[in-house]
Amino acid sequence: MIYDVVVIGGGASGLACALRLVQSGKKIKIAIIDAGERLGKKLAATGNGQGNISNTNMSPSHYYGGGAAFAAKIACADPYQGSRLFDFLFTADEKGRIYPSGRQASSLSDCFMRKISSAADIFLSVKVTEIKKGFSLRLSDGREINARFVVFCVGGKVQKQFKTDGSSYALITPFGHKITSLYPSLVQLKTETKYIKPLKGIRADCALSAAVDGKILKTVRGDVIFTEYGVSGNAVFAVSPLITDKRNSSVIIEFLPDISKSVIKKNIDERKQAGCSADELLSGTLHNKLGRAVIARAKAEGGEIVSVLKNFSLPVFGTLGFDYAQVTRGGVDFNGITEELESKYVKNLFFAGEVLDVDGDCGGYNLQWAFTSGVAAAESVLKRL
Ligand SMILES: Cc1cc2nc3c(=O)[nH]c(=O)nc-3n(C[C@H](O)[C@H](O)[C@H](O)COP(=O)(O)OP(=O)(O)OC[C@H]3O[C@@H](n4cnc5c(N)ncnc54)[C@H](O)[C@@H]3O)c2cc1C
Fold this sequence. Notes:
By secondary structure, this protein is of the alpha+beta class. It folds into 2 domains: 2-183 and 329-384, FAD/NAD(P)-binding domain (3-Layer(bba) Sandwich), CATH 3.50.50.60; 189-319, Elongation Factor Tu (Ef-tu), domain 3 (Beta Barrel). It has helices at 12-23, 68-75, 106-116, 234-243, 261-273, 288-301, 305-310, 365-384, and strands spanning 2-8, 30-33, 54-55, 63-64, 90-92, 97-100, 120-123, 128-132, 136-139, 144-152, 183-185, 189-191, 203-212, 215-226, 230-232, 249-254, 312-319, 327-329, 349-351, 359-360. Strands 1, 2, 7, 8, 9, 10 and 19 form a 7-stranded mixed beta sheet that branches. Strands 12-15-14-13-16-17 form a 6-stranded antiparallel β-barrel. Strand 9 and strand 10 (144-152) form a beta hairpin. 49% of the residues are buried. The structure holds flavin-adenine dinucleotide (FAD).
């Protein structure tokens, strides 16, 4: 069987690509091949099951990697571009995060299936194990299929339960494509735990800064959750892209971001004068365990309590790794890719999504890239058909 287009990978980018091809109205024989048992399995798990597909605040500063400028060009053009692939409504929350109005990520995968399944051949639970120029694709069950165009949408290296274990990059390196260094991003951080051991399980609303070589790169407001290895929580995910690939980094927690240093200091001084014991000076002001940890650290380091509370820094030793991250930093080097998302080494081989050297911030930026690049790759293929 010869297909006009074979999309390898039925995740967010592959499905967007296939849908655009289907909607072109052209008579095209399309196949989607996915290693998972159903299409869009990861997509159905995104945004804590609610599917945060984009963000009203789209700007180039939210993208990283060698393809960041290119990604920004197509992803930032219209925050709602991805949403137009679907036939239902979307709403944005107070942080600009765009979700299906029914807040169900599985509705995204279901919609793709509804629109694609009768117009494309779908191969599930089978991996492409070799791509020969021309194209002939070998599948893990021994079958071989042929295609005029291939769109490579195999995702990255995070969370191997979604069949994205990083093994598929090797399918295109024989053609000369380089893979940049890979790191987990949007991920929990391993930090110094000396002062936070008793805090395991505590969540605090903080201002959290990421610093590299002592220089603060970004500060966000959100939850920090203390764990046995370091810190987690939405604020941690949000700063992780700034430090995942850096050495000599730290996070700085500001507790009580809405109360000024002078107000807290005055309160501590008044409590001291009233005879409050040293260990209890922050009780009621902070969660008791947090208060005691701050006071213990101030004592151990000879610092002022309020300074430690406002500047609780933790050296970062690394991340929790690819199995826990939401996205891969790094991927197929953009030097080998044209503006049409085509390989510079193999004609009619196109790319989209996380497999490329592009990653985005937390907040819908990665799905927006996956959808818009999938559509862009489909447009490029359509021009040739
Ligand atoms: C838990 C979680 C939550 C997330 N939440 C959000 C969110 O709310 N908002 C957001 O913007 N981003 C989110 N992301 C990131 C986002 O899901 C990904 O960046 C996006 O899915 C990437 O799309 P993709 O098509 O490039 O790859 P994927 O969606 O990962 O799809 C790749 C597909 O390729 C298949 N595949 C791989 N190799 C082969 C092969 N050799 N043969 C056949 N098939 C193969 C896999 O089975 C997989 O289905 C989240 C990620 C995770 C893990």
